[in-house]
Amino acid sequence: QVQLVESGGGLVQAGESLRLSCVASGRTFSNYAMGWFRQAPGKEREFVAAINWSGRSINYADSVKGRFTISRDNAKNTVDLKMNSLKPEDTAVYYCAADAMPRRIVVPYSPENYRYWGQGTQVTVSS
Length: 127
Hints:
The protein has about 130 residues and is mainly β. The chain is about 0% helix and about 55% strand. The protein is globular, with a radius of gyration of 13 Å.
């Protein structure tokens, strides 16, 4: 059974930074793409960023491009999301997710491609 545990959420002011971390266990972490999604109250879960199994291919949502950076450490089974210049509209519960398919060529951005999910961590940005 794959387990994903997120950490690093919190309350910050607009313009500040946060780093989210996700630790994975239960299968060979380095074979799978990892993604970050978020869900704000009353809204659907949306794609934020994803990184392929090797770390060489990365996708970002347009809304976070240039502000957020996703990275992974396959030796530590972790995937991080560094969030800079945070805005109130970034307020949401952030979820770490693991791809269902090993060594996918194209980095997936649809939640349907991800089989395992963490419990989520709250990020609140005040104006």
